[in-house]
Amino acid sequence: MRRLPLQDDIASTAFYYLRDNRFAARHPFLDFKPNGQQHQLGATVGGPIRKNRAFFYAGFDQHIFDIPAVVRFRNGYSVVVPTLADFENSDYGLVTLAAESLSTMGGTYPARMMGNAGLAKLDVSLSPRHQLMVRVNSSRYWGQNNVYFDPTSPVTFYAVSENGEERVATETALLTLTSGLTNRLN
After folding, report:
1. CA-to-CA separations, 57 to 12, 33, 113, 131, in angstroms, rounded
2. What are the backbone dihedrals phi and psi of residue 97, each rounded to the nearest 5 degrees, phi first?
3. 21 CB contacts (<8 Å, ≥6 apart)?
4. C-alpha distance across the termini of the chain, in Å
5. pLDDT score recorded for residue 86
6. What number is the average pLDDT over the span 132-143?
7. Is residue 142 within 8 Å of residue 113, measured between CB atoms?
8. pLDDT digits (tens, 9 = 90+) for 148-162
9. CA distance 56 to 47
10. pLDDT at residue 116 in the model
11. For residue range 25-59, what is the model confidence (pLDDT) as tens digits?
12. Rounded mean pLDDT of 11-23?
């Protein structure tokens, strides 16, 4: 049996994550369970190309997010129904108009995101004093009514309407040559 060179030195990983609302409990403040799924998958591979001289590493990650945002009011419903206390010392028309306006913001809004990121890296030892490194990264994200990128922002993360789409594409490349200098005292 012939063994391929470097076959045992290559390492790889893979993963898959699924979150499905069908398997989750209903949120305590909702009277229904919204449909939604989240998938995340990826893989990496790396190892030597030439023993003790050249090495590679590559990775890929994809995230598919489709979980709706549900907007409900204090009464637990997606419409505002004024109570008698709301009308005390208030203009009936103003209270009714405010309730109708707020009710247009309640409901279930789609929130989707599709993103992937990939990277590749090559390290080459040109000589004992010269090392070369090449790296390329790429990422693509698309989102609808979803700001996955900044969950700390209350302005965008808690939007109560169709807040549009966003598309992000980023590519980077890096080439590095590292050289070591020696000083011989002899």
Report:
1. 9, 42, 27, 16
2. -65, -40
3. 33, 34, 35, 36, 37, 67
4. 52
5. 67
6. 93
7. yes
8. 444 444 444 444 445
9. 6
10. 94
11. 887 878 888 888 999 999 999 999 998 899 999 99
12. 92
Burial class (CB in 10 A: 0-12, 13-18, 19+), 105: middle
How buried is 76 (Cβ within 10 angstroms: 0-12 exposed, 13-18 middle, 19+ buried)?
A: exposed
Residue 80, classified by CB atoms within 10 Å of its CB into exposed (0-12), middle (13-18) or buried (19+), is buried
Condensed to tens digits (0 to 9), the pLDDT of residues 59-100 reads 999 999 888 878 777 777 788 877 766 677 777 778 788 888
Report the phi/psi class of residue 160: left, alpha or beta, with left for phi > 0 and alpha for psi in -120 to 50: alpha
Rounded (5°) CA angle 60-145-36: 70
Please tell me the pTM assigned to this model: 0.66
Instruction: State how far the Cα of 96 lies from the Cα of 89, in Å rounded to an integer.
Output: 14
Query: At residue 165, does pLDDT exceed 80?
Result: no
Across the chain, mean pLDDT equals 81
* Residue carrying structure tokens 């790396």: 46
